[in-house]
Amino acid sequence: MKKMYDAVADEYIKYRNDLPEMLLPGLETRGIDFSGAKVADFGAGPGFLSEQLSARGAIVDAVEPSGEFYSHAVEMFKDNNKVNFNLSYGEKSGLPVKTFDIVISLRSWDWFDRREVLEEVQRILKPDGYLIIADFGFTDSSETVKESVKVIRKCAKKYKVKSKIHKQETDGLITGFPLEWIEEWQEYRFDIQDLYKRSYKMEFTHEGWIDHLSPLSSLVPFKPKHRRKTLKKISEHLKDKYEDDVYRIGHEMNVAILRNRS
């Protein structure tokens, strides 16, 4: 997993604590019991999900390679004995063998070397334990999103930015997940218990939308000065194009619940 978010850690912490309210309740209704469970949170970021898991009774080992996120989390969880933060990579977590009931990855699976992280999950997960992979974010159903992405792509080309995300060409999607991901899960003997998605909307002011974009994964590889210039161009473009400065943005949450059969 790339340690890319150090450059935008402050913005991420400030503007991206936006976990869908239905995420954990939806997992619980599908039989995932967090109370007393040992959970590894891979790609934990600053600990937003870890905090919610611990509030539901989970004992959490958070794994995050960003030093900036780690520093924030150490302070955030200094009085929370249910969360232990580890400055390490999902591919080499250093966590003990066959110890965890659940491994969860939220908004981070496409940053991993997926085969390496699957081997690591197999190593630390108990037999019949769960691997939960979830993602959420805005969709391109909104014209605001389309226009914003158009500017980002134009600037990426201008500044010769290459994405650091581990993505491959895909033959298609199943419930929001690339087919090759599903094939990899099956290859590593993870049975699919459930795949589901939910749609929802979020409302942003103009300034709030620009702030929300600032730590966007497609902007993370930009040099800081180029990222600032790109956000300014997006802001100017949207102001020129739309009179209304309140945007209702469609979002989608995708969740895979997998069972370890190794």
UniProtKB/TrEMBL annotation:
Pfam families: Methyltransf_11 (PF08241). Transmembrane segments: none annotated. GO terms for biological process: methylation. GO terms for molecular function: S-adenosylmethionine-dependent methyltransferase activity. Residues 41-133 form the Methyltransferase type domain. The keyword Transferase applies. It comes from the Bacteria. InterPro entries: Diverse_substrate_MTase, Methyltransf_11, SAM-dependent_MTases_sf. Belongs to the methyltransferase superfamily. This is Methyltransferase family protein. It comes from Salinicoccus kekensis.
